[in-house]
Design brief:
Order of helices and strands: HHHHH
Number of domains: 2
Number of strands: 0
Radius of gyration: 30 Å
Structural class: mainly alpha
Helix content: 55-70%
Shape: elongated
Length: 156
């Protein structure tokens, strides 16, 4: 569920664009739930393969291998995949609902983890070393906070 929530948060602007282009809520829900189902099926298949592999490896261990015997049936595999699919649907329901209820304008305005106004360099009250008489504050490193030296006035 956390992976799907983060996926929706990272793609908020994309989802807003799709909604602005005319995608209905049902289609957005289908997109997110489809992604959750694919991820859960891949995880279920990998889990089944890992379980069978580890069971076979445990059966080959000298001394205790005779006590451990893997018994596989179609029912166990179906039950494992069904559990993975149901967990995928359950874990994808809230992110899908959240994505479907995004307003396109607010989603397009969303900035995510980026800062809208990044913090500026700390400034001191010292005079600018670039030119005499400049009263622009310097940054903490001693460099001029102004990009160019002050211009002389035309009336002088």
């Amino acid at each position: 569920m956390n992976a799907m929530v983060m996926s929706v948060m990272e793609r908020t602007r994309e989802i807003g664009t799709l909604r602005a282009l005319g995608w209905r809520r049902r289609r957005v829900v289908g997109l997110i739930l489809g992604e959750a189902l694919v991820l859960s099926l891949v995880g279920g298949v990998l889990g089944l393969g890992l379980g069978v592999g580890l069971t076979e490896m445990a059966g080959n261990v000298q001394g205790i291998g005779g006590f451990l015997e893997g018994v596989y049936s179609a029912d166990i595999f179906i039950q494992g995949l069904l559990t993975a699919v149901l967990l995928g649907l359950f874990g994808g329901a809230y992110p899908a609902w959240r994505a479907a209820n995004l307003q396109p304008v607010e989603a397009l305005r969303y900035e995510g983890a980026r800062e809208i106004n990044p913090p500026r360099a700390r400034r001191s009250s010292a005079t600018c070393p670039a030119s005499s008489g400049c009263r622009f504050a310097t940054s903490g490193a001693g460099a001029c906070a102004r990009s160019s030296p002050p211009r002389a006035s035309a009336s002088a």
